[in-house]
């Protein structure tokens, strides 16, 4: 049975080491390990756009403790961004120097063309030369493909000309095929801070969670639900499953929770409201008291998905947080600690998809 590992918290280094210690990983000293973060553009991870370097630090520490010395962080930023600048701004130059690992700008790499039967794709060579590839995407929504996570993060392993061509090919099918040429051995999703709607950040949602697994299709299926989407809504996930790259069967997978979300009660952090107008507007529909970050993040994503599909009903309110546990609540409560509410969305925390499904029913959407 495939397993997914989930842990809540905001201290990336500590969290990821806890996950890696309980996972059964086929790593050995002497291996060449590649780490592919999501460094799409020059914005710090607090923007919701890029992978938290503290999370990558935890991975490197773990690898070095296993006697692995050949570690390369590799990336090419999106079209129009300078990867060297991105490394600097996102804290990766400092990170690589601190741990003595290679930081490799894929833009300088040679490329080669490979056929998948349906597509001829141009890939950078370096990611294909490692013995073990660790894919470290960010949990975020995307304006074109609805979400971006493990499968789409490998787009950083193709040159700019190919990135542009992927758009003309409709993105979904080539993304799936790219993963047939370059497999991720381990996926660690930075769900500490992701973005509500765009790959480039700007509306950061603190979910304070990290998810890990070995099946990129399964990881993306799980993340789709965390963002409020049904797996069937994200075409590239289904294509990848058809290509035999993994499974979308979340019911057949074991979700291993390494702690409880109630360890992180941030409520609306300054980060989420400062300058993030979209989130401030959604906050008008939320009555919050001592909510855990993952729970609040789920609700914010769910409301955005409802807003995108139907618009939000006038004067709708959803209650959330442990602060309501002893109170009478007339209305909708999100999360099991609102079990006494007139209508409760069960789960601790519920996924955004579970919230969307519930609200569609009670609001007759
Ligand atoms: S249901 Fe309550 S305790 Fe559970 S995650 Fe939500 S706010 Fe936290």
Helix content class: 25-40%
How far apart the termini lie comes to 36 Å
CATH architect. name of the largest domain:
3-Layer(aba) Sandwich
Mean pLDDT reading:
94
In spatial order, strands of the major sheet run 4-3-2-7-10-11-1-12
Brief write-up:
By secondary structure, the protein is of the alpha/beta class. It is built from 14 helices and 16 strands.
Question: What labels would you give this structure?
Answer:
single chain; 365 residues; alpha/beta; Rossmann fold; 2 domains; eight-stranded mixed β-sheet; four-stranded parallel β-sheet; 14 helices; 16 strands; 22% strand; binds iron/sulfur cluster
Please explain how this structure is put together.
There is one protein chain. With 365 residues, this protein is an alpha/beta fold. It has two domains: 3-257, Rossmann fold (3-Layer(aba) Sandwich); 265-362, no CATH class. The chain is built from 14 helices and 16 strands. It has helices at residues 12-22, 53-65, 83-89, 92-99, 126-129, 150-153, 160-168, 172-181, 216-226, 235-242, 270-273, 277-283, 293-310, 352-362; strands spanning 3-8, 32-37, 70-75, 102-105, 111-115, 120-124, 132-136, 140-142, 146-148, 186-195, 204-213, 254-257, 286-288, 318-320, 332-334, 343-345. The strands form four sheets. Strands 4-3-2-7-10-11-1-12 form an eight-stranded mixed β-sheet, sandwiched between helices. Strands 13-14-15-16 form a four-stranded parallel β-sheet, covered by helices on one side. Strand 13 (286-288), helix 13 and strand 14 form a beta-alpha-beta unit. Helix 1 packs across helix 2, helix 8 packs across helix 10 and helix 13 packs across helix 14. The longest helix has 18 residues, at 293-310. The two termini are 36 Å apart. Bound molecules: iron/sulfur cluster (SF4). Iron/sulfur cluster binds next to helix 13.
